[in-house]
């Protein structure tokens, strides 16, 4: 895991995983707790965390894409699109980011 912190692509991969985990937590734990148990506390906590990770992933994708001179039509748009598709960050990490 330490080797990922040394490069911008590695840090982008970490953000992808964290964003995906935050969405999993929000969808499968926090939202059911809110509606089935009447306890919205976890949604109030995880919502802003997920939103922040989402934006960080988006901005870092653009930053890394410019720095690495990714062709927008080949790589950048796919990585950006992944954060709009539920759990797409896991897929994009496996198919694109891990190979860079």
UniProtKB/TrEMBL annotation:
This is DUF3817 domain-containing protein. It comes from the Bacteria. The keyword Iron does not apply. It comes from Chryseobacterium herbae. The chain crosses the membrane at residues 12-33, 45-63. Keywords: Cell membrane, Membrane, Transmembrane, Transmembrane helix. It holds the Pfam family DUF3817. InterPro entries: DUF3817_TM (IPR023845). It is found in: Cell membrane. It is a multi-pass membrane protein. Residues 10-96 form the DUF3817 domain.
